[in-house]
Amino acid sequence: MTTTSTTPPVRAAVAPPRATPARKGSAILSRHPRLRLGLLLSAPLVWLGLVYIVALVALLITAFWSVDSFTGEISQTWTLDNIIEVVTGSLYQTVTLRTVGVALAVTVIDIVIALPVAFFMAKVASPRMQRILVIAVLTPLWASYLVKAYAWRSVLSQDGILNWLVTPLGGSTPGYGLPAVIITLSYLWLPYVILPIYAGLDRVPDSLLEASGDLGGKTWSTLRLIVLPIIWPAIIAGSIFAFSLSLGDYITVNIVGGANQMLGNLVYTNVGAANNLPLAAAIALIPIVIIFGYLALVRRTGALDNL
Amino acid sequence: MRLSRPARIVLGSVTAIVLTVVYVPLLVVFVNSFSTSTSLSWPPPGFTLEWWRKAFQSTGALNAVLTSVQVAIVATIIALVLGTLISLALQRFEFFGRDAVSLLVILPIALPGIITGIALNNFFRTMMGVPLSIWTVVIAHATFCVVTVFNNVIARLRRLGMNFEDASADLGAGLWTTFRLVTFPQLRSALFAGGLLAFALSFDEIIVTTFTAGSGVTTLPIFILDNMFRPNQAPIVSVIAVVLVLVSILPIYFAQRLAGSERSLK
């Protein structure tokens, strides 16, 4: 009567897990985080490093070689000729300025259009409406890029729908040329700019906006002082898409650009018809340098985490 | 901040106008697929179903769709595996060169496609001596698709934290069991969204594809580019575009439902 109450009831201990090989491996891995990291990283790094970085570096090296004008073979003697030609040639300077101008215009237009649309989607529309709008923005991405560019060729042509719509109002289509390129590229990349900005705005808590209102913040000051700093990385992320996709484009220019050339066209001609890979690689350095400069500039904003 | 009624109306109208402009070119494509004009002139001179009949009988178009689907599926699977691994590594560990690795993931999409294209073309043909084929396209596509999976998964991991995984480990689950029963179910919708984007990106890619496809490999964008300017083929291209947009609504809808139901659970 006395002893049974003092000794605690004996509970069956949980059997230790059986030491299967998987179990042992798991134990080793959880004790060695570096090993875990190594296993996680090895496959992606081998893939991206081996395929992409090696290819990219090889291309850059090619820029310092030349093409034998007689045989058309690449001769592996080091020369700065291609680089000098690309940096000093007036053709390359004009085309670079034109391309950067088009890319900047497209980026600015897309951001200006995307901001109110994304704001309406994230903060004004009902949840049901929100879902419909996201689908409405995403759907055009599935119509082929080429088909959309070609559709704009048809829209902007002399007997296209734009002329048909604006001629009664006294307007006319801009025709094919740089304005058409800017319109078409802005159209093509708009969803890529709306979506990150929408995602950024969606993360801004409504309570923050209400607090600002309660403390007397007017609409504009709330937008400028509260909303803008929070969604800034998302805007930059959208701009990377619009800017870099425009910078390398050569197909849209062919379809709606008339006789205009962009950097992509020069690279394409030198790889294909002119068979001068070293010169093409040297021209390709221009957008690479511009993009790296841009990425370095925006890295501190944290935009690269928002792509 | 409370938006006034006029402000809401202005925002709503801007959104409506922008979406209208977004859909006008698609509408033009839709109408052109029924138009008797082969030069896409507006207003369409007459109605015909000929292009739709021809499109469904065109073996070239059907084969191109099939090739693109195959390439996109394999590239997406590779991107899902690599993207998940790399986001787990970057989110859960601090290590030297972490920024460099995240830049490495972004680079294939941040650099213009033509650069990726000629770099890979040069790599495969000149450096490795590998003839271009459907596999070189798959490798190229997987490389720039990793980033879409990576972005979706790492954003999800950041929100999740480690509490559930720690609990699972404390209760005696091994790493693989924890991943299978705890981490993966929480990542599922992010993987779906990232995979969907990767698929779409690969399916529509033309520039890198031009430089990495073997001579017999015709993906849908290559088929479209070849046929776009042929008078008797252009309306068939319109039909293909219309079908693709209609078919694409389903996966987008499901992705949204998945995201929406997870949001309401929180």
TrEMBL record, chain A:
Protein topology in the membrane: Multi-pass membrane protein
Membrane spanning residue stretches: 39-65, 100-120, 132-152, 176-201, 222-243, 277-297
Location of the protein in the cell: Cell membrane
Keywords attached to this entry:
Cell membrane, Membrane, Transmembrane, Transmembrane helix, Transport
Q: What is its main location?
A: membrane
Keyword check for Transcription: no
State the signal peptide span. Answer: none
| Region entry Disordered, spans | 1-21
Q: Where in the numbering of this chain does the ABC transmembrane type-1 domain appear?
A: 96-298
* Family annotation (CDD domains): TM_PBP2
Question: SUPFAM superfamilies of this UniProt entry?
Answer: MetI-like
The family classification in the record reads: Belongs to the binding-protein-dependent transport system permease family. CysTW subfamily.
Query: What is the name attached to this protein's record?
Result: ABC transporter permease
Q: Which organism is it from?
A: Leifsonia stereocauli
Automatic annotation (TrEMBL), chain B:
Which UniProt keyword terms apply here? Cell membrane, Membrane, Transmembrane, Transmembrane helix, Transport
* Main localization (coarse): membrane
Instruction: Establish whether keyword Transmembrane is in the entry.
Output: yes
**What is its membrane topology?**
Multi-pass membrane protein
InterPro entries xref list: Bact_Polyamine_Transport, MetI-like, MetI-like_sf
Keyword Transmembrane set for record: yes
The record's PROSITE patterns line, in alphabetical order, gives: ABC_TM1
Q: Which family does it belong to?
A: Belongs to the binding-protein-dependent transport system permease family. CysTW subfamily.
Under PANTHER family, the record lists: PUTRESCINE TRANSPORT SYSTEM PERMEASE PROTEIN POTI
The name under which this protein is listed is ABC transporter permease
Q: Give the species.
A: Leifsonia stereocauli
